[in-house]
Amino acid sequence: xxxxxxxxxxxxxxxxxxxxxxxxxxxxxxxxxxxxxxxxxxxxxxxxxxxxxxxxxxxxxxxxxxxxxxxxxxxxxxxxxxxxxxxxxxxxxxxxxxxxxxxxxxxxxxxxxxxxxxxxxxxxxxxxxxxxxxxxxxxxxxxxxxxxxxxxxxxxxxxxxxxxxxxxxxxxxxxxxxxxxxxxxxxxxxxxxxxxxxxxxxxxxxxxxxxxxxxxxxxxx
Length: 221
Known about the structure:
The chain is mostly helical.
């Protein structure tokens, strides 16, 4: 079993945080929720353990990667309220054990869809980027969010999106859908934390296709 390589672990912004202890990274994450680098540093530190546990529990590599991403999304939300000192006692357990426990919860509760129904691509959207993209999507106007999901998650054409919306009573043309989508992509990127844009959408990402940047299964479960 080969653990995936995550290039963000070599980014200077993330490497600069590696000297922090688990408790320090957790505290920084909780105090600076508008920044994504602290969660990304935690992800880089513990992704090998989480992936190893998940891979042994999934029937296929595609399902393993999807469960890996779901697990990290769960971890992200749990970290916001975690207090190692108050909740678990100074000596009762470690941050690593909590990560393992949260992973076990996700594995035990997972009801994974068949491989052909999974749209997630780990290389395109590593879990930290996925988490922050989902939060950015929630800030978009509902109609624009729907069009972005149709276009990027389900790969619908502008003509098909327009036809669907027209059937729902919205008078919109494919050209107008194209314009709304472009504005939606700009709003989506602007809603991402600055450091997430630097790490994941920086110079090394400029050669990617626009559709690849948002090829994540957002709100599609």
